[in-house]
Amino acid sequence: MKRYGFFGGSFNPPTKAHEELAKEIMKEFNLDKLFFVPVGNTYQKNGLIDEKDRYRMLNILFEEEEKIEVSDLELQTKQILKAIDVFSLIEEKYKHEEIFYIMGDDNLEKTPNWKSAEELLKNHKFIILKRNNKELKELIQNSNMLWKYKENFYESKMQKLIPYSSSQVRKAIQLGNTEEIEKMVNPKVYQYITERNLYQ
């Protein structure tokens, strides 16, 4: 049985922080493969560019990484998918592997409010990344539902990511701040953004 990690998000655009995260998580949890799962166009979020561009940028970012793949799972449907729907699709496709879902502790805190939250937490394993200043143990203790399934949470020892967010990149592009953009984005990804005049 192989160990696969899945990391969902908008990746609008993917940054050097995503690149760093992928490599560190692969090593820390001895994953055989890591999949990035970008949301599709049905995801409701302001400023979200087309799914095809985000998918291509992720592929450009990881084109030399044999053990990192970009999944088009959410791009194959015009339906609005909830987390439980995405998890079900992944479990069906990779049912013979050990699967871990990667999320930040900020999202974990919101999970009890999600649709089918109990089913999600009971039946799946999660790698938790530090995004805020709370201790994971404290966060879990403050929620009866999270505490109930605490054995399914695996805390990453990785400290907070390099502080580059997709929103910072978009803002820097709009301001024309090339120096800042180059700090935060892989050169090939930046070239793709420039050639297609994205985020203007």
Automatic annotation (TrEMBL):
Classification via Pfam families: CTP_transf_like
Alphabetic keyword roster: ATP-binding, NAD, Nucleotide-binding, Nucleotidyltransferase, Pyridine nucleotide biosynthesis, Transferase
Q: Does Protein biosynthesis count among this protein's keywords? A: no
Recorded GO MF terms:
ATP binding; nicotinate-nucleotide adenylyltransferase activity
Question: In which pathway does this enzyme or protein participate?
Answer: Cofactor biosynthesis; NAD(+) biosynthesis; deamido-NAD(+) from nicotinate D-ribonucleotide: step 1/1
The catalytic activity of this protein is classed by the Enzyme Commission as 2.7.7.18
Q: Which residues form the Cytidyltransferase-like domain?
A: 6-171
Task: Write down the chemical reaction(s) this protein catalyses.
Answer: nicotinate beta-D-ribonucleotide + ATP + H(+) = deamido-NAD(+) + diphosphate
Gene3D superfamilies to which the protein is assigned, alphabetical? HUPs
Q: Which GO terms describe its biological process?
A: NAD+ biosynthetic process
Mind telling me which PANTHER family this protein's record contains? Answer: NICOTINATE-NUCLEOTIDE ADENYLYLTRANSFERASE-RELATED, PHOSPHOPANTETHEINE ADENYLYLTRANSFERASE
State the protein's purpose: Catalyzes the reversible adenylation of nicotinate mononucleotide (NaMN) to nicotinic acid adenine dinucleotide (NaAD).
Which HAMAP family does this entry report, sorted A to Z?
Answer: NaMN_adenylyltr (MF_00244)
Q: Which family does it belong to?
A: Belongs to the NadD family.
What name does the UniProt record give this protein? Probable nicotinate-nucleotide adenylyltransferase
Q: Which organism is it from?
A: Candidatus Merdicola faecigallinarum
Gene label: nadD
